[in-house]
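Hi U.,

Before I forget, here's the chain from the pilot set. I'm dumping it here mostly so it's searchable later in email.
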Amino acid sequence: MADSRGGGGCCPPMDLFRSEPMQLVQLIVPIESAHLTVSYLGDLGLIQFKDLNSEKSPFQRTYAAQIKKCGEMARKLRFFKEQMEKAGVLPSLNSDAQADINMDDLELKLGELEAELVEVNANDEKLQRAYNELVEYKLVLQKAGEFFSSALSSAAAQQREIESRQSGEGSLETPLLDQELSADSSKQVKLGFVTGLVSKEKSLAFERIIFRATRGNVFLRQTAVEEPVTDPVSGEKVEKNVFVIFYSGERAKTKILKICDAFGANRYPFSEDVNKQSQMITQVSGRQTEMKTTIDAGSLQRNSLLKTIAERYEQWNSLVKKEKSIYHTLNTLSLDVTKKCLVGEGWSPVFATKQIHDALHRASIDSNSQVGSIFQVLDTKEGPPTYFRTNKFTTAFQEIVDAYGVAKYQEANPGVFTIATFPFLFAVMFGDWGHGICLLLATLVFIAREKKLSSQKLGDITEMAFGGRYVILMMSVFSIYTGLIYNEFFSVPFELFGRSAYDCRDPYCRDSTTIGLIKVRDTYPFGVDPVWHGTRSELPFLNSLKMKMSILLGVAQMNLGIILSFFNALYFKSSLNVWFQFVPQMIFLNSLFGYLSALIIIKWVTGSQADLYHVMIYMFLSPTDELGENQLFPGQKNLQMVLLLLALVAVPWMLFPKPFLLKREYEKTHQGQSYVPLPSTDESAELEAAHDGSHGGHEEFEFSEVFVHQMIHTIEFVLGAVSNTASYLRLWALSLAHSELSSVFYEKVLLLAWGFNNVFILIIGIIVFIFATVGVLLVMETLSAFLHALRLHWVEFQNKFYEGDGYKFSPFSFALIDLEEE
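Structure:
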């Protein structure tokens, strides 16, 4: 069994500390009950199936036809969803769950509904196009009618003017004019014309092309339509012009028609006869009214059909998705030689054995199978997946760890400690109980409405904040706690836990610094004494406090990481990692930085004025020199020499013994056997390979490679001990930046506005202060502190013990399929 090596039980059981024990199981299922079996296992969601047909293409697998059928049904459902979204019809979320629907019946039903909907859409499209054409035709009749009526009236006026000129008798020019008119009337040519609509933005180009194509032998008139018109072809609202083009000759007509087609201009017939025009307008208006009534009736029918679909849409969609996933899973099972059974393999948690047995038994009974399914556990040397049982509170913290890398099977999980350490380190950088309360209130809104919000589609940033609501809750609670320690409420100190321990010597020191203050009461009981705020000594005092506190927290967390590597080594029975990794690492780290932490605490307790920078530097440069005034306790010089010697010894202790012992162990295990490869050069993996002679192919033990990797790990740890400790100083830097920014906004915005004694300026100042606090301190600073806390966990803490080279347990589960779709 894959989990047999985890039976050490070195520490009390914790749900998240070790991943769930996993087992490789084999299922032998009769074909007649296979579908129902996989369906029940999908409801259970506790088996991760292995693909036993990986060499086959999707089209060669047993259930390819069924998957294709489900894909076609899914396409029809997507089509229905698009149509419902266009019509503004929402799927019913609480549709009545009916009895099991037969998939063949559902396929027929969906086909009929699709055909009906397609037909309704086609009819509606035709009617809508005809209606839009009638609207355009009516506009052409109205606008072109105006052209012709104005042209006729002007022609009649000209005729009257000519007749009046000719009425004078005895004129010498009369006979000549008669001849001219008779000659002109004999030469008159009948003009043709084209009417229609063209897009307003194309009208100038349209007119120019017509003019050039006919060499100016046309007369074109355009007028704009007041409101946008729905184009019959595209169905979009377009601003258009009505045009009338007069031409002479068939060649000109052919050119004009081609240009109209090229510009998408819609042409409509028009009569010169005024009586016919009014008659046509009446007819078009009547047809338009009839068409509108028909379209409305069609829309009602379409909406009724879509509402019928919407009532069952979610149920059908869920059923098709489940059915498709079942067949995909069945395709990962191999057909047994008798072709009567399907054989499947997969990983499942040990605790799920009884539930899987029950599901198999129910499936056999419900499918009336004469033969039951067989469930058996297989022995394997393959690495199992990692599975942690999380809830809505712990999931977000586990996601933070998994973003770095999924834990190796049953290695110590940093997620357990991240629940406390991550929000605490964030709060050290974000310590202000006023800002913490703001974060807390925002988070409580998310938590109070989580049922409603979890079923809604949120924006990317809101979705992220909502998913991590419990992380933000812990961050805000810890921020209130550290804010009370720093005694800062939007940078303002309060005497919450009693009066200050200091008082002025005389009335003139009210606005002075600590000079002139004397201690008159007991020490302030909790956190920083409010008297420090606003004094000349505030920055040096808080800098010293926060810098030393950062080092203490960093060394404590790094020690925790190394201790967890000890529990890993003990759990996996790796004595090499205990003696040649854990022990020298603890000695090296604590000989230097553990000693520094002890000096900080001693200095705080004794009130000594010793310079710790000088002590640590000369511990390396001149370890035999006397410490003088920097001595904190008797025998300090000798202790420093011992610690320095231990730190120097720890480096070769980490570097040399382990590769040689691994080589000796390998040779002893494989004496007289062919060489077997090591799966990895990681310490624990090397040891596993040394104990396991049957794994892999035939490669020689590469001592040089193992030694080089061990040297890299040693150098990385030695240099990392220094750089990681320095990295924790970001706690001090960001805490100082947050405090100073908060102080600047309070003093330079709020107090400055208050000092003007003007209500308007005060309101402006309050608004600027609120926006600056929210935008900079509650958004940007929160993100900055979050990212720095993330780095401290991933790099400084987790690299001491966490390999993170596992893979996540991904069971076949209908619940997960629904979440992925969302």
